[in-house]
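Appendix B. One record, verbatim.
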Amino acid sequence: MDDFESKVRDALANPQNQGELADADAVGTVGSPDCGDMLRMWLKFTEKDGKRVIDRASFQAFGCQTAIAVASMATELLKGKTAEEARELSASELTGDLGPLPPMKIHCGQLVEGALKSALDQTPAAPAPSAAPTLSAGLQRPAGKIRIVPLDGVQPS
């Protein structure tokens, strides 16, 4: 338990990505009626190697130190992940270097997971690529009147 508490203290001494993200693409908020904690997570996406990935994530927590530490770890883990990859992360994976949470603190990981999924539910789907013209579209009959122009003395029949 001392190692876990030490890691939580370290995460609290230097929390990462804490605070609002003004230009966020998505925001998710969850609260736990059991403990009174509330957590909000902001996500900002960017295009990288043809994929839409999380560029930045931030959080604001109203709750216990463990929830703040897990949220701090999670926002670092999310960078570079697609929405699909982020959605697959479990509460225990979002704890990062903190490792497994003690039984009395498992709800903190679930709180962070809930805020992440709430934000991902607010994320608009990546825009579909515009359809390129097909070969058959180029062979379509042009609109309007057709004018036949004879070539080199050949008369149209």
